[in-house]
Fold:
Amino acid sequence: MTQHTPDLLTIAGKTYQSRLLVGSGKYRDLAQTRAATDAAGAEIVTVAIRRVNIGQDPAAPSLLDVLPPSHYTILPNTAGCYNARDAIYTLQMARELLNGQKLVKLEVLGDEKSLFPHMPETLIAAEALVRDGFDVMVYCSDDPIQARLLEQIGCVAVMPLASLIGSGMGIVNPWNLSLIIEQATVPVLVDAGVGTASDAAIAMELGCDGVLMNSAIAGARDPLRMARAMRLAVQAGREAYLAGRIPKRHAASPSSPMAGRVA
Structure:
């Protein structure tokens, strides 16, 4: 039996067994958030600092009560920010709330309708945050040039969208994603647009290092079952990528070899 070395995801020098990252919003309550996170097998959980309490309001329930940082990597993000200044301030506040944590997720949106990344502001914020000592994972367009610029700035992971946030449309441009993956020397994680398990599997088969999702799980009819499905899909897609698929052909190829057959 072939022995395989552990296939771990490494981000900013820390390793993770799970390649599925999940969000913490849109669930019925905090108990369901915890249950879905565990069903997904996720180790990294993103938190929208502007929308979720992790200590900003001492009188309100905190997400950290059900997802303690001792068991999960809490990844603060800048959802709801539309310029570099607000994003930088939000993550500086998150660093204080999380005892100096450096790993963050940057997203600067262009408008409230499309939620498409505002790349000029994203680049400004990324450069300032890296200079300030943050380990920046960054939501970006599926433009290979923009992804390269973010890596050159010093971001520890690039996170191109598969399609619009919350759309469930899946991967609309696999060729662009493939170009980003081919050139990247940091992890590439699909962020936004995944709708079902097959979308996650395709992202992993393309060679993505991981997938981040929230709406696809929290908005499902049965979030816990969908979380388990996504966990298996990410694992299956990764295994298929490592195994190496057969080439596509325009002709049949028999499953059984013809040489040596009995007449």
Remarks:
- The beta strands are 9-11, 14-16, 20-23, 44-48, 73-77, 103-106, 135-140, 157-160, 189-191, 210-213.
